[in-house]
Every structure is written in structure tokens, then in C-alpha cells.
Amino acid sequence: MAKLTIKKGDTVQVIAGANKGHKGAVLDLDHTRLRVRVQGYGLQTKYDQQEGKIERERFIDYSNVKLVSAAKATAKKKTTKKAASK
Predict the structure, then answer these.
(1) Distance CA 25, CA 83 (A)
(2) What is this structure's pTM?
(3) Domain 11-69 architecture
């Protein structure tokens, strides 16, 4: 599994394809196939009897996007161990 520099929530720009220049947030990552799902890009329509019309984004190749701005990292609680006093 390759390490991706793009994380879920980052803003990326599409650099290849029909919608070149489209900017959107990363919704999902597929680490095994190196693909990302960008908000509003490559909408796929599916019809279901119960739910009706469903639109969702398709995965695109990782090499076709570039990072515009990273999502803010959540602050992690820093824990320190106190030395045992005798």
C-alpha cells in the first residue's frame, strides 16, 4: 500500500481530464488502487425504486489531482509521563 500525501478533507484541483481546473474537497480515498473521490467531480447517476435518483462522485486517479490546501489537523492531546518519585 502506497503512502498518499493527500488526506480526506483536503482541497485539491483536477489537473487532467474533461473538467480540468475543477476544485473540490476530497471525500474518500482508495489506498489500494491509488484513487480519490473529489466533491462535485464526475457525478454518476443511479436510479433506485425506493430512493429515486442518486448522484455520487466517481473515483479518479491520484495522479490527476494536485493539493491546493491541506485540511486543518486536529489538535492531539499531548500526554507526558511523570517520573515516579521515591
Answers:
(1) 44
(2) 0.72
(3) Roll (2.30)
